[in-house]
Structures are given as C-alpha cells and as structure tokens.
Design brief:
N-(1-d-carboxylethyl)-l-norvaline Dehydrogenase, domain 2, six-stranded parallel β-sheet, 12 helices, 2 domains, alpha/beta, Rossmann fold, single chain, three-stranded mixed β-sheet
C-alpha cells in the first residue's frame, strides 16, 4: 500500500463510486462527498468518511474529482463550497478524472496553482463494469513530481496508468482515444452487417473476430451488446459526437489530416439525427443495418464480455 495519506473524493456517481470503492477496499483513508449525499453514503457503509461539501476536503493530502462536466468541475474546485473555497487551507494535489475541455482544465489548474496546490488531469477510459474488473486505464498530465507522488493510488484504480506530459496533454490523449472508439465501432458495425447479410450469425462472426489477432478487450466487451442488441448506455452518441468535434478542432489547430475520423463523425451525427441520442454508441450497428437494408433481431445466446462479469 502507498504511504498513508488523507484522500478526498468528490463525485459519487456510477463511475466515481466505482473508482472510490477500490481505494476504500484497498484500506486507504478516504473521505467522500457528493451533491446527493445518499450516493456517498453507500461508500460510507464500506468504511469511507462522508462529508457534506468539497470544501470539507481542503485539508486532504490528495483530492480526486469525478464529475459530469466543465461547470461541475469549476464548481467543486473553485466555487464557494469548492475544495479551494477555504481561504486558510488547500489540498496538496487535486487529481481530476472527469472528461472536460482543455480550456476548463487549464483554468482549474491555474486556480489550484494560485493556492499552492498541484493539479493533475487524469481522464479515464472505461465504465463502472470495467472499473470493477480492474481494467480501467488512465492518462495523466501535469507536474511529474505530483504524478510520481500519487501514482500508487492511481494504480489502485486501474491496470494502466500512463504519464503523457505537462499541462492538458492528457485531455488530448482522451479525445484521441474516443475517436478510436467511434471509428472502430463503425468499422465493426460495417463488417458485422456484411457477415450477417451473407448468412453468418453475429455471435459466430464476433466469436471468430475476438479469437483472431484482430480481437481486443474492446471488441470482446462490446460483443454482447452487438449480439443481443442491448444498447443500455455506457457512452452515448451525443457524447461521442462532442469528442469528435473536439478532435476535429484540435486537428485543424495542429494541421493534422483526419479523413476517416471526419467521415465517422458524420455517421455518428447521422445516428443522432435518426433518433439515437440516449442509447449506447454501439447503436451505430442499427444505423449501418438500416443503410444496408437489414432488419436485425436480437440473438438470445450467451456471449462472454471478456471482463469476467457477463451473466
């Protein structure tokens, strides 16, 4: 275990609770807070201390944040009840695991620096099921010494912790990652539709793919959704489109050509226009089937998701 320090955790939604739970169960001294206190109380039952507001975590050595977006991050860090809201105290290091813009991240970094606190951008790849299986990955940017100081805690959260450089570079890495999610899912939808139109079941085709050199943790994890047509959301097309927009803006600013990504962005927009806004982004499969004249039906078979958590 890492040297014992006081850890604060802000944000106990599905992802935040799953991540904080790993730190609590690992025996660390964790204090948690959430806008809706009842969500934090579930971690209190496991041994965490529950406090009323982020400001109550100002004396922690390390404070993790996992909130919904830009405005939430600004509020819980710099607001009157934020973790920097106490003029007499500030945490040593703030680690933000939320998915926010580089501009918001830079503003919060500056606010932390003004109070003598280091700030690490640490966006994650995964969802609560991935967290529970120990397969979460994190990209981290900011002061190297601060990263080295909290690395042991980050490694409790997941299996892959990568330091990518200074300032907001981790935000760019996360955007690039999510573009790959969209492009790979679109390609997987296309070939799955092609195979089914030729008479191959989705279960058989994806089983073959997953056992080949082209198989991946992602393709195995998404296979149950594609086979059963269960699009319970983990990441919606609307959120994916937002990341494509950010990627296209970054590509323009940096002079990087991204023709395949640009086309996929339009296909994601088309899925949203067709009414798929709140489902999982794997619903790209249904749009590809529609364009191909294929009416899909769920296949009621067991499919291993590769995480050891499939029913």
């Amino acid at each position: 275990m890492a040297e014992s320090r006081r850890i604060g955790w802000i944000g106990c939604g599905r992802m935040g609770a799953a991540m904080a739970r790993r730190l609590v169960l690992a025996g660390h001294d964790v204090r948690v807070t959430n806008r809706t206190r009842a969500k934090a109380e579930t971690l209190g039952e496991l041994g965490a201390s529950v406090v009323d507001r982020p400001r109550d975590l100002a004396d922690c050595d390390v404070v993790f944040v996992m909130v919904a977006g830009n405005a939430d991050l600004i509020e819980v860090v710099t607001g009157a009840d934020g973790v920097l809201g106490d003029p007499a105290r500030a945490p040593g290091i703030v680690v933000d695991c939320s998915t926010v813009s580089s501009e918001t991240s830079a503003a919060v970094r500056a606010a932390c620096l003004a109070r003598g606190a280091d700030f690490l951008a640490s966006p994650v790849s995964g969802n609560p099921k991935v967290v529970a299986s120990g397969n979460l990955t994190l990209a981290v940017s900011g002061p190297r010494a601060a990263f080295d100081s909290v690395r042991a805690y980050l490694e409790v959260l997941g299996k892959g912790v990568t330091y990518v450089g200074d300032d907001e570079l981790a935000r760019l890495v996360k955007i690039c990652h999510n573009v790959v999610l969209g492009v790979v899912t679109q390609v997987l939808a296309e070939v799955t539709v092609l195979a089914e139109k030729g008479g191959v079941s989705r279960e058989a085709f994806l089983q073959f793919m997953n056992q080949s050199v082209m198989g991946s943790t992602f393709s195995r994890y998404k296979s149950p959704a594609l086979v059963r047509l269960d699009f319970t959301p983990t990441f919606t097309p609307v959120l994916l489109r937002k990341d494509f927009d950010l990627a296209m803006a970054a590509a323009k600013a940096l002079g990087a050509a991204m023709p395949v990504s640009a086309l996929t962005s339009e296909l994601v927009a088309g899925a949203i226009g067709a009414g798929y806004a709140s489902e999982d982004f794997a619903v790209l499969l249904l749009e590809q089937a529609r364009r191909s004249g294929l009416v899909m039906e769920p296949e009621d078979v067991f499919v291993d998701d590769g995480l050891g958590t499939a029913p």
